[in-house]
Amino acid sequence: MRCRSKVYAARTLPWSVWENGELLGCGALKELDSQHGETKSMRTASAHLRKGVARAVVRQIIAEAKRRGYRRLSLETGSMAAF
User: Fold this and answer.
1) pLDDT value of residue 56
2) pLDDT reported for residue 7
3) DSSP assignment of 8-76, as one string?
4) Over the stretch 72-82, which tens digit does the pLDDT of each residue have?
5) Which CATH superfamily is domain 2-75 in?
């Protein structure tokens, strides 16, 4: 299992977890301001729940938030049906 990242929008950095060419999960970190980031779009493929996929993504997001010097990290809690 490995996490990959690629900047896709200003101030937002996504990660995806892949194994043998299969997407297992994803998440992103968005900069809200120089001191505050937000965890976004956390998803794990249903076939890979409870295997540490989300843990791997969250660890990457937290490490990047620390690297950026954020003092606050929030969790996106959408209001659409998917949430």
Assistant:
1) 94
2) 55
3) -BTTEEEEEEEETTEEEEEEEEEEEETTEEEEEEEEE-GGGTTSSHHHHHHHHHHHHHHHHT-SEEEE-
4) 999 987 666 65
5) Gcn5-related N-acetyltransferase (GNAT) (3.40.630.30)
